[in-house]
Write a structure and sequence with these properties.
single chain; 497 residues; alpha+beta; Heat Shock Protein 90; 3 domains; eight-stranded mixed sheet; five-stranded mixed sheet; 11 helices; elongated
Length: 497
């Protein structure tokens, strides 16, 4: 039987090396990761206009190790997936990453030392091509350097590309395990540290049939949101393979607030380590797990937005009530509660008019808890008179988004509840001395986005209901009363932004 030999042309290997990565800067990341696989605790990168040097204090290579290093497609790291000293999950897989150096230089040298063995191998692209079918590389045996110790140094010479330090740092931060213990990387003497973000953190852990999917999503404050480097870093063995949005692109501007990282070591990556094998069952299981995570992020985002709106509504309601208090004090004939003293005349207005946690003993005995929930910092439930056993109206349908405040007007009191009553619900309504404002009403939502008129709108709704309390049988007269109250609420003290 006749056999055909399988051969590989040298030019193909060089082409693979030159095109291995979409960016030639990736090769520096690859060299750092090789040092990590070799149990290095320190990696020093030196960059000048003439050369790039990556030096480590790992285990180094002996003669057999060098053979494996230059064995194209060696399965060594697959067969020995853990490093010998620190038992690290080895990052390299295909054994051709070193040839990515050819995308940035015409020559690279590998110096290695392990125990009593020290040697240097030179890969000169021009000289190697001249050798025709010969695949040999010059190996120079050297005396061991006791001060140097074990480790390897790869030096890129005759550079054909220019590298910027800030771009190198970005690749190192994204593409190397800087958070691993006993591992540090320095560029021209300065240590490169992992990126740190501040915001609301959502840790997660999801299971799959292939392994765990875990990480952390960070919701950035609006002030630090950025459209640069959008998405979540997907990491395999602590290395960022790519950023993915997982449908976040449909969320509009809020996507600029979402950052984070997810670890899924079982994901199969492409040869150039720039993406994943997306039609694999592992990747499909990963996407399903991340779907659950993104739904949780959506829930937290809405909850945080609700808290922000609640704080805003609480502040606006307090100021609106103070303004209404003043307007009623100036117009006692329009008050359904009788005469109301101005500031300095008894109860006063402003903060003194708002009933909060501190009540005098007489009032404290009269307060009864609301039936449908407790009101804390936002306010207190309506007062109930035990003596006459007359039931006061209670704040109803207290949702988690509700804001409730109570203000005394003379001897009487009014509770105002800002709550959810649906887009189709009334803008506001009154039951007894409880005024309800519907924060889901389209007009309320529109004014909520306008700092200049938001407090004015809340004040308008409160004065509308108070004017109707005076005489609900004559709406036109109530409208006239509301107009005067609203004018006096703002005429001397403009609403603050």
């Amino acid at each position: 039987m006749e056999h055909l030999p399988v051969t590989v042309d040298k030019s193909h290997l060089i082409t693979i090396g030159e095109r291995l990565y979409s960016e030639s800067i990736e090769l520096i990341r690859e060299l750092v990761n090789n040092a990590y696989d070799a149990d290095a605790t320190e990696v020093w990168i030196k960059m000048t206009d003439e050369l790039i040097e990556v030096k480590d204090n790992g285990t180094g290579m002996d003669r057999e190790g060098l053979r494996q290093y230059f064995n194209i497609g060696s399965p060594e790291k697959v067969l020995k997936a853990k490093s010998p000293q620190f038992h690290r999950d080895r990052i390299g897989q295909f054994g051709i990453g070193k040839f990515a150096s050819l995308s940035a230089c015409e020559c690279f040298e590998v110096y290695t030392q392990k125990g009593d063995f020290a040697a240097k191998v030179t890969f000169d692209k021009l000289e190697w091509e001249k050798e025709g079918d010969q695949w040999n590389l010059p190996l120079q045996i050297l005396p061991p350097d006791q001060e140097r110790g074990d480790g390897a140094t790869v030096t890129l010479l005759r550079l054909t590309r220019e590298f910027r330090p800030e771009e190198v740092i970005r690749k190192i931060v994204e593409g190397t395990p800087l958070k691993a213990v006993h591992f540090a990387v320095r560029l021209n003497g300065e240590r490169i540290t992992p990126r740190s973000l501040s915001g609301h953190r959502i840790p997660f852990l999801e299971g799959s049939e292939f392994g765990p999917v875990h990480g952390e999503i960070i919701i950035l404050p609006s002030s630090t949101a950025s459209p640069v480097e959008l998405g979540i870093e997907v990491k395999v063995k602590q290395i960022t393979v790519k950023r993915e949005l997982f449908g976040l692109e449909q969320w509009g501007k809020v996507v600029s607030r979402i950052r984070g990282e997810v670890h899924a070591d079982f994901l199969p990556v492409t040869t150039d380590r720039s993406g994943f094998v997306t039609d694999s069952p592992q990747y499909q299981a990963f996407r399903m797990a991340m779907g659950k995570v993104i739904r949780e992020v959506d829930f937290v985002l809405k909850r945080l937005a609700g808290r922000k709106e609640k704080r805003k509504a609480n502040k606006a309601l307090k100021e609106a009530l103070q303004r209404v208090h003043r307007a009623l004090a100036l117009n006692p004939d329009l008050s359904p509660f009788g005469a109301i003293p101005l500031a300095g005349e008894g109860e006063g207005m402003g903060g003194a008019g708002v009933v909060s946690k501190k009540l005098d003993q007489k009032e404290e005995k009269e307060v009864q808890p609301a039936e449908e929930g407790k009101v804390s910092e936002e306010g207190l439930p309506p007062l109930r008179q035990k003596k006459v056993r007359k039931k006061s109206p209670k704040v109803k349908r207290l949702t988690p988004n509700a804001v409730v405040q109570r203000m005394r007007f003379g001897e009487a009191g009014v509770s105002v509840c800002v709550d959810d009553f649906g887009e189709e619900g009334p803008e506001c309504f009154t039951e007894g001395t409880v005024i309800y404002i519907n924060q889901q009403h389209p007009l309320y939502q529109r004014e909520l986005k306008k700092p200049d008129t938001y407090i004015l709108n809340v004040t308008r709704l409160i004065t509308q209901e108070i004017a109707l309390m005076k005489d609900s049988r004559n709406p036109r007269q109530a409208f006239s009363r509301q107009s005067k109250l609203l004018r006096d609420a703002f005429i001397e003290h403009p609403a603050s932004n």
